[in-house]
Every structure is written in C-alpha cells, then in structure tokens.
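User: Before I run my own analysis I want an independent prediction to cross-check against. Here's the chain; please return only the structure tokens and, at the end, one sentence I can use as a sanity check.
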Amino acid sequence: MIKKEMIAMLLAGGQGSRLGVLTSKVAKPAVAFGGKYRIIDFPLSNCINSGVDTVGVLTQYQPLRLNTHIGIGIPWDLDRNIGGVTVLPPYEKSVNSEWYTGTANAIYQNLEYMESYNPDYVLILSGDHIYKMDYEVMLDFHKANNADVTIAVMPVPMEEAKRFGIMIVDENRRITEFEEKPEHPRSNLASMGIYIFNWKTLKEVLVAMAHQPALDFGKHVIPYCHGKGSSLYAYEFNGYWKDVGTLNSYWEANMELIDIVPEFNLYEEYWKIYTKSEIQPPQYIAADSLVERSIVGEGCDIYGKVYNSVIGCGVIIGEGTVVRDSIIMNQTQIGVDCEVDKAIVAENVQIGDNVKLGAGLEVENEMAPHIYNHGIATVGERSTIPSGVTIGKNTVVFGTTTIADYEASGLASGKTLIKAGEQ
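Assistant: Structure tokens:
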C-alpha cells in the first residue's frame, strides 16, 4: 500500500455568488487574478512549495475551466506517478448518490481516495484564498502539540470578528472554545478554513456524522471534535491572507499587487506561484501609449493609457483610450477613445469605440446592492458593449448588448443589464 505522510484535500466546488456575474459561468477558484494567475494557483503552489505532493481537488460548480486549467498538474510539478493532483467531482454511487452538500460532506464522499494513500495527516484547504503559507511549519506545530486537529487562525480586527468562526485559546494555544460568527466575540482569532486532521480523527468524525445534512467543518465537524474531547490547537498565521469572495475584496487584492511596496509579493524567488501559462507573444506598448504603476500580462497590445490597473494576457487597448483603477481580464478588447474608470471587465469581452465605463456619480445598485457596490462597474465574460455608450458606477452588464438595450445610449449608475439566458 502507498503511504503518504500528509495529503491535501482542496475544496474548489464553490460558486462564489458574491462575485456576481464573474462566477455565473465559472467556479470561483478559476477566476483570473493578478494578470496571469487563477485563484486556485495560490493554494496549489503553497502545496508543492510545502512539500505536499498529493492533492485531491474537489470540484462541483461549473468545473470545466478549472479542470482544463489544472489538467494533470504539470505547472505545479504535480504530475506524479504516485500522488500528484487528482480532480474529484461528485460521482454516481450504487446507493445514496448526491451532490456535495457541505464542505465536510464533500470530504466524506472521498474517503476512499484518502484511504488509498493511508496518510497520517490530512490537510483541508479552500480553493479561493490569496496567500502564501508553508503547511510544513503548521504540520510541525501540529506534531509538537500532539494535536488531533490544528486550525490555522489569524488575528482580525475585533469589530470584524463576528463575521468568522472564532477560537478562544489558552496560553498553550489549545482551543478551549469555538464560536461560529458570534454576535459578541471574546477573541479575535479567526479560523482561516485551513485544517490539519489526524487521519484517524477525521475518518471517525466523518463516519459518525455522515447523516448530518450539508455537513460542514465550521458548523458541525469542529464542534463535534471539541465536544468529544479531541485536542484542538490554533496555529497562528501572520502573513498576508485575503478572502476574495466579494467584488470589492477581489478588486482590492488585485490593486494591492501594484502598490509601490506590495504587501503581497508575486516576485519572490523562494516561494514561486505557478500557473498554467498560455503561449503568448510578448506585450507591445505603442510609442504614444503610457503605462503607469500597472501589471500588464503577456500578449497585450497597448495603444492607449493605463494607470494603476491590472491587465490580463492578450488584452488590446485602443488608441486614445484611458484605463484607470481597473481590472481587465484575458483576451478582452477595448476600442479607441474609451474611458474606463474603476471597472472589473471579465474575460473575452468586446468593448466598442467611445465607450465610457464607470462614469458619473455613485448610486446604489437597484438589483443586488450587496454584490455591486463600492462604485465598481462590472462586465461579465464574453459580453459585448456597443460603441458610443456611457455606463455608470455600481452597474453590471452581461451578455451581447446592442445600442437598442441602452436608454438614450446610456446605463445610469446603479442599473443592471443582464441579457436573458446569461444568468
């Protein structure tokens, strides 16, 4: 039997509904990030950099692009004869077939996969966070404390603590109490959704709780282990960690990459972030164009002016166009004499000439203010915006639109234009 000390289970099945139209056709971990990467590249790179060479990626929602991106794991050196990366979608069983209904239910449905490696430890990860972390250091902490379960935590501002699972620990970092999203938090150590379990402990709890609908780590598994008297420890992480679950946090995390001294550095030699790269020609910056404090991906043709933006691969920006404080994803084309201000434009979008995107004053979005906010104009993938239209702030456009879709050639701030069939 193959024996692996620690294997990783990477949860990548989430829809990420708070990213709005960005995830209507693609799973959140496959959303482009930083001009070159996809969100899942970060935990996958952390695995290989930490010496974890066996990773099960649990997919469910819109998995095609994620599967294509991961392939057999070559960019992360995870194309192994033994171990490597395995994509684990839900599958038909002889009895009780079901979709993955909760984070722990997804892991439970793959007991057989884990069993085949007979690991000592299982590392549970989310596929939608941006961070660099050495899981080996966390494993050393787990072993040193003789823990059954170790939960990675990070200090958060006290006023934000009620949004997280909060750990109350003693002086040895042993978890004495656990509160899921408490109204009046008594500690600011928030769970990062990264766990190391002893295999025996994990197997026991999953089998014992298999009947629980939508079995979840934070809501069910951790409280169960705590109630059973398992030794739970909190491993404190103090590096950069960002949950890019909302459009604004996604926009912010991209913008932080272009700070003069970036808090999150993509250029470190010793902790590389690997990705599947398309074969692209080098970028071309025309003589009278201007690029300031921006990331520009390979294969771009820049004829206009770009300030403080993250531009993906294969993007074309026409002459006279000005792009500011925006994220433009791969293979998008923007015509001439456009103004793009604080926008997130997804992949393969076509924008005509003389288009103003993110213009005017900020007005609350009428359809989904909890998603489309902070003044960002959002365009979903494969959308078309005709020439000569003006689109305001907190807006969303998705689908192939024509001039007839715009009242008086415009879409006012706070308005939504989603063509039928694009939901």
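Sanity check: The chain has a mean pLDDT of 88.
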